[in-house]
Structures are given as structure tokens and as C-alpha cells.
Design goal:
Order of helices and strands of chain A: EHEHHEHEHHEEEHEEHEEHEEHEHHEEH
Shape of chain A: globular
Strand order of the largest sheet of chain A: 3-2-1-4-5-8-12
CATH architecture of chain A: 3-Layer(aba) Sandwich
Structural class of chain A: alpha/beta
Largest sheet of chain A: 7 strands, parallel
Helix content of chain A: 25-40%
CATH topology of chain A: Rossmann fold
Largest interface: A-B, 49 and 48 residues
Number of domains of chain A: 1
Oligomer: homodimer
Distance between the termini of chain A: 30 Å
Number of strands of chain A: 16
CATH class of chain A: Alpha Beta
Strand content of chain A: 15-25%
Radius of gyration of chain A: 20 Å
CATH superfamily of chain A: NAD(P)-binding Rossmann-like Domain
Number of helices of chain A: 13
């Protein structure tokens, strides 16, 4: 299939581009590269040095003979987006191209507005471009399990059958997102659902859980094919951060009680889920929601799993509870369905000690690059960010580039 | 109480400002005046000539001795919004300041983006300004009944008790909005609900039905106090448009079958509902939703009501069914609750022949200003707008100003 991956420079967008290319799909990788600028603004940096998109696609071609076309593009430009969609005969577009950090969205009013405008406008432009130029093309959109929040009932996949006062309907599952970022994904979901109904767009909304892991077999083929790995307070997801802390003997920092339960998945399953969704397109006008995760854990359970994996090697790991910077329940019911992708053939990589060892192994290789001050949460959900986010002094901080990588 | 009315230049914002001022509240009227620019861009015009905000508040002072402070302000400026909120010791803010036309939002990608960015960013800025400078202030926000769509179950006021697989929760009522405008209000609702939870904002979301009527007693006091009256395809609401058509002997144009059922209310009840919400503030952290309408009708029923009212005067009115430019069910279940405002003391003005006569009477006074071509819908939900919306030629069209009014 011919597919554009939007957000192809990101932690998941790049492995997805490689995975799809390796399986014979004709991949166009698009990104505005803003994620690298956000790193500079936040004083953060991928632990694993990453090559430029140009180097990456050249290296991929040299190693495999397969071509990934690289296109620098900002989805917030309607003209550029429409031109790109019009240029190719597309069967699918995969849309990762959003600001995807909850803490980033909570730093300040400007960051909240930037997140919602970037995400909502990019998705609106893509929907209009599809209507104009590729009405049969399947939109595979990355949502988040965080759209649902933590209701006291089972979480269904996008829709719920409600019986009320003797009448019935199948309605969108109520959303209780927990940050301006998560809210932006809820806005997107409503916008996409509407365009499926009025324009006949075909779309799959992948409500993804928290992803962990360092890469996929294709990113391991060469240093220039690696994807980014974030361990900091803004961009790092919890399991990757815990592994980084363990690698340097730092305590695992749990926010609050740690009873917060979420869905998780291995990055190798992310790329497979996207492919499965893409290979099994919905009908014209259908808005389909898959909950994309494989297991659920509480944050405390995750910390214990890592502690136990380290103990198998005779290493001791401490767990520290920090005041929770977020506003969220720390003990709650959580049971989220995730059957649709299994029905399409997903065989999950469950969390195992060997994976934890592998992540920690990679971190150890780059442990000199770890800055432990970045483990400390700088953004409070009640007060916003502290420190110098977005100030000129922060902008001037330059990311150290590993020699020979870019 | 001291209150800012945002969107005070609009059809409802201006009467609300007068109503609150007349009842002894200390009113600051804020607006960016963009509604008048949108008229120029759309080639539309208020049937009733309206004075400038400066003239309006001067006239109000001259007639009543009461002062309404006029502030030109754009909510999409965070700095200006924060400065204004900081300047006054506020007990409430009433927020009408949004692009409020569904057809306008469906003209093109640019109009969809403009609508969602304007509405979402304005509301986000207001929420951040309240958090910073007036955390006790009550936000009274205008939503729309159109957020709910037309589910096959009773529509509750914002929240619904759901029992599912043996467990229960009270969750946000699922939303199925029918245009990019209605979607923007859903986005706002989610954003506001979140800030109530994490920052303790106190908010009332007034999910309003379709408003009809020419004004309130205070707007009738002087020609310079009148509020706008829209009869066109972009800004006109259905009952006002039907009355305008009847006044010049034009057929009442029903979109499709006319079985579309919605909640309606008299403009005199709008101002009273806002006051009742304001006088009865929720607790800090509470997000409260009132469905603000008094009766429900199908579009066909409304047309029949007007036809019957005209027949009482021996006048014949024809009803014409146009192809529906919108994507909506034309026959559906509809039963929406609207108890909360009645419990607070609302005594509804139900739709009567005398009101219809009054609206038609006003239209007849200005019938020479009616341009019947503006009755014809120019925006199709599937294809967008036809014609020259937003083109320089349309921009050059100037609104005729009645002498002595501005």
C-alpha cells in the first residue's frame, strides 16, 4: 500500500515508517521536525543520539534497497498538506504528527494553546485535504487511552451501548481526559467522527496506551536508524524513565501512591497495530476506534517489576514516592477492553524481564548522557511549569550532537 | 454583582448586558466587534440597524443613569484578557464571545479552523486568566444544545448515570455535534470541565437551544439600544428567518422533511437564564450544565405555527421544502431535559401567536432592507460554501448604514 506517515521523525513515527517499508509498503515520511526544536526549548534531549531524517532514509536505502521518501511538511499549512495529499495516490495516511506530551501542554497558557491549536488544526487540515483529494484514503489516527480518564465502569473501544429510561442507543464513550494534551486528542476524535459521518471519511482512531521499549528490529540495524529515547519529565514515558533511573542507580520516582493504572504496550506492538489497522480498512464513512495496548499495570506494579528484574542480577533498586504533580486518582477501578486488534491478529509482546534488561542495557550504553535533574518533574498540573521553559536562556541551550551521527 | 459580558455586541450579548445593568449589576461589556466584520465578509447585515457600542452605552446612560463600561477586547489575546480580568473585582463573567454560526463554520477549511481556533483559544485564555487573577469568579459559558446531537435516548443536563457490566458511574453525556461550530462548543465544554477539576474553576455551561425574538424591554427603549436581527442563511436562526419570509410573502423554506426537532427559547428567557445562573453560583471546582431552552418543536411544526398565526389575520403563507444542505436526521427521537433553570425560578415565555406577530411586525418596519436572495442556503455540509465567501469582491461589499444610527 502507498502510505504517508505524518510525524515520521518521532519516537513511534520513525519505527512505524521502517516497519511498513520493510514489509513492502510504499512509505512517504513527513514531519515538520518541531519535536527536535521542542527538545531545545525544554532543555531535554533524546538519550540515544538520532540522525537527521535525510541520513536515516539514505541509510535505510543503502542497507535494504528500499526507498522511503522524506518530505518536510507542517500539517498546520492547509496548502502544503493538500498539495502533498494530492501528489500521491494514497491508500492510507498514518497520523502521529501531534504535540504528544501531557506535561508540555500544562506548562503555561501558551503551551496549552500551542498544543491544542497544533493538534486540532493539523488534523482538520488533513481531513479537508482527504475530502478534497483522496476521499477513499484511510486515515489511521493516533489517539490515546488517556481520552477516557478513569471511569468507574469498564472502558469500551470508542462506543458504549446505553440503555436509559427504557430506550437504547450506541453512543460515543464519555471522555474525561486529564491534560490539555489529552483534551486535544478528544477534540480530534470528535472532529474526525463528524467528518466520517458528513463526508464519508474512513478512519481508525487508535487509542494507544503508554509505549515502552527502545526500538524494533529495523531500528537496531544501524546507529543511524535508531529512534529517540526520552527519559525526562516532559517527554519520557514512565517505564522508559524507570529503566533509565535503574541504570544509573537512581531511585525509581513514583508520582503519589502509584495506584494509577494504565494500559501499556511494547513499541514492537505499536508498529504492528498500525500495520494491522492499515491492512484492514473500514468502510467509507466508518469511524472505528481500537484501544491499542496489551496489558494494564499500576505505576507501582511497574516499579516493582523493574526492581525484581534488577534483583535477578543481584542489583538493588529503591522506589521513592514523590508528591504527584498531576491531578489524577491514585486508586481507582480500571478495566479497559482491547479486543479489536487481537481479533485482527495482534500477538502481543508482553512485558518480560528480558525486555526490561534490554532497555536498561541500552541506557547503560549512553549513561554518560543522562542528566538526573531531568528526572525531577518541573510541571505541576495546578500551577503550571516552574523554571525557564520557553525563555531565551533556555532556547540558547544547544543539544549535544554525538559525532558522526548527524 | 460585578460582571463582564464577553461578546456584548452580539444578538444576545447586548440584551444580556442591558438586562443585567437594569437589574443593578455592575456590567462591563467586552467585544472585539468581529461579528460586524463577518457580516461584511458574508454579504449579510442585521435587518434592524444597530448603533455602535459607544453610542449604545451612551444612550443607556442617558436614559437610565446606569453605566455600562465598554471595553474593546479580543479574547484570543491572553495578555489583554488577563489584564482586563485583573483590572476588575469580578464575581462573574458571561462568555458569549464565540463564532456562533454552524453554516459559517462549514464554508471552508479556513472557516472551520477560524471557528475552532477562535472559540477554543478564547475560552482557554479566559480560563487561564481566571486561574491567575480571579479564581473565585464564576464562569457562565454559552454552550449549545447542538452539542448533544440527536441520540435515541433522553438527553440529560450534561451528565448521565450509566450502569454497565454491573458497575455504575455518573459520566459526561456523550456528544454528537453536527458542525465544526457545534464541535468547537464540545471542545470548550471538555476544556472547562477539566479546569474545574484541576484548578477549582467554578463554571456553568448553558447548553442553549435556538433563540427567537427581536429583543427585550430594555432594547425596545430606544432605536440605539436595539439588538441585531438576522434572517439570512448564515446567521439567521430558523424562527426569525421564517417570520422574515412571512413578512414579505415569501414561502417558508424548510430544509428537507422538517422533522428535525430542537429546543427553542424566547430571547427574553435567554437573558433571564443567564441572570439566574449568575445569581446562583456553583461551588469552587464544580462544572454545572443547564439545558437552556423552554419548548421543543420540529422545524415543520414551527412553519405550521407561523402559517396558522398569519391565517388568523386572513393572510396565506406557503411552505416550501428545500433539499437539506445539512447532514442531519430529519425524523428522530428527541426528548431533552431542561429542569435546572426552572428549579432556579425561570418562568418561560412560551411561543405564542402574539410573539410571532411582534417579530413579523418588526420585520415589516424594515422590509425594504430584506434581500430575499439571502434566504437561499449557500453552504452545503458535504461540499462547503459556494460563491464568493471571503473573496476580495465580497469584502468590498459595504453594509448600508441607516442614517443617524451609528
Amino acid at each position: 500500500m502507498r502510505v504517508i506517515v505524518f510525524g515520521a521523525d518521532g519516537y513511534l513515527g520513525w519505527p512505524t515508517s521502517l516497519h511498513l517499508s520493510a514489509r513492502g509498503h510504499d512509505v512517504i515520511a513527513a514531519d515538520n521536525l518541531i519535536r527536535r526544536r521542542w527538545d531545545v526549548l525544554c532543555g531535554t534531549e533524546s538519550l540515544v543520539p538520532i540522525a537527521s531524517m535525510k541520513r536515516r532514509v539514505e541509510r535505510w536505502k543503502a542497507l535494504t534497497g528500499r526507498e522511503i521518501k522524506w518530505e518536510k511538511l507542517d500539517l498546520t499549512s492547509l496548502a502544503d498538506t493538500t498539495a502533498l495529499i494530492t501528489q500521491y495516490q494514497l491508500e492510507a495516511v498514518v497520523h502521529f504528527a501531534e504535540q504528544r506530551s501531557a506535561p508540555y501542554s500544562m506548562i503555561s497558557a501558551q503551551h496549552a494553546v500551542e498544543t491544542q491549536v497544533n493538534n486540532v488544526v493539523g488534523t482538520l487540515n488533513l481531513l479537508f485535504a482527504l475530502r478534497e483529494s483522496a476521499p477513499d484514503c484511510h486515515l489511521v489516527k493516533l489517539g490515546t487511552m488517556g481520552e477516557y480518564g478513569t471511569p468507574n465502569i469498564d472502558i469500551e473501544e470508542g462506543f458504549i451501548d446505553i440503555e436509559h429510561n427504557g430506550r437504547k442507543d450506541r453512543l460515543p464513550f464519555p471522555k474525561q481526559p486529564g491534560s490539555f494534551y489529552h483534551l486535544s486528542k478528544v477534540h480530534d476524535s470528535h472532529n474526525i467522527m463528524f467528518t466520517c459521518r458528513v463526508w464519508g471519511i474512513r478512519a481508525t482512531d487508535l487509542n494507544q496506551g503508554v509505549v515502552y521499549g527502545t526500538g524494533i528490529p529495523e531500528t537496531d540495524m544501524h546507529g543511524q536508524l535508531r529512534t529517540r529515547f526520552d527519559y525526562d519529565d516532559i517527554w519520557g514515558t514512565v517505564l522508559n524513565r524507570f529503566c533509565s533511573q535503574a541504570a544509573i542507580g537512581y531511585p525509581l520516582t513514583v508520582y503519589g501512591e502509584g495506584g494509577q493504572t494504565r494500559g501499556f504496550l511494547d513499541i514492537r506492538d505499536t508498529v504492528r497495530c498500525v500495520e494491522l489497522a492499515m491492512l484492514n480498512a473500514p468502510e467509507r464513512g466508518e469511524f472505528r476506534v481500537f484501544n491499542q495496548f496489551t496489558e494494564q499495570f499500576s505505576v507501582r506494579e511497574l516499579a516493582e517489576r523493574i526492581k525484581a528484574a534488577r534483583a535477578h542480577h543481584g542489583l538493588e533498586t529503591s522506589i521513592e514516592h514523590l508528591p504527584n504533580p498531576r491531578t489524577e486518582l491514585e486508586a481507582h477501578y480500571y478495566n479497559a477492553k482491547h479486543q479489536h486488534l487481537l481479533d485482527l491478529g495482534l500477538v502481543p509482546h508482553k512485558l518480560e524481564d528480558s525486555l526490561i534488561d534490554r532497555v536498561i542495557g541500552l541506557v547503560e550504553r549512553y549513561k554518560k548522557r543522562i542528566r538526573p535533574e531531568l528526572f525531577v518533574p518541573r510541571v505541576d498540573w495546578r500551577r503550571g511549569g516552574t523554571g525557564d521553559f520557553g525563555k531565551p536562556s533556555a532556547r540558547r541551550r544547544r543539544v549535544a550532537v554525538a559525532p558522526g551521527i548527524r
